[in-house]
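Hi all, posting the design record for the shared folder.

TITLE: backbone redesign
STEP: 1 of 1
STRUCTURE INPUT:
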């Protein structure tokens, strides 16, 4: 195969993989259009949405980390197979545990006074911080902060 064809083949395969990822990310919105906890439109909040997949195959689509915490706390006996979050920039779903989390900044949070955003790369998180403020935190810290915030909003 000629070098030009090899490069073109790699480019085409990469584009197909990206298209497949975006397509999968949008599938969760069509299956779970509204947040199971608050009813908000998950397409409108596609940059903060999360998808909880339980071991029994059931899924819960939520609009934010706040609503994910409420969902998980309401289902403490159920085992979670996967917890996915949208990358704030691309809206593609990524594993919440491996995402780079940013807390704070000038962008208004979803269902919280303390915004928490997920990014697939540290570089994307750092770019967000340069423009909007905030700080990189661990998944454990993001989850703990969301649980603390959720307790503050409950009657």
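Okay, here is what came back for every position:
SEQUENCE:
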């Amino acid at each position: 195969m000629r070098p030009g064809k090899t490069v073109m083949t790699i480019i085409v395969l990469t584009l197909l993989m990206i298209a497949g990822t975006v397509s999968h990310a949008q599938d969760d919105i069509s299956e779970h259009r509204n947040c199971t906890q608050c009813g908000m439109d998950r397409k409108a909040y596609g940059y903060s949405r999360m998808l909880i997949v339980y071991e029994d195959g059931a899924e819960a689509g939520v609009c934010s980390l706040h609503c994910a915490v409420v969902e998980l706390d309401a289902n403490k006996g159920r085992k979670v197979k996967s917890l996915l979050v949208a990358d704030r920039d691309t809206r593609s779903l990524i594993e919440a545990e491996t995402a780079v989390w940013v807390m704070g900044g000038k962008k208004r949070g979803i269902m919280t006074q303390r915004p928490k955003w997920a990014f697939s790369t540290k570089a994307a998180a750092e770019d967000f911080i340069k423009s909007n403020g905030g700080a990189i935190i661990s998944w454990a810290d993001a989850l703990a902060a969301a649980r603390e915030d959720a307790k503050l909003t409950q009657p």
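COMMENT: Confidence is low (pLDDT under 50) at residues 20-25.
Let me know if anyone wants the other runs.
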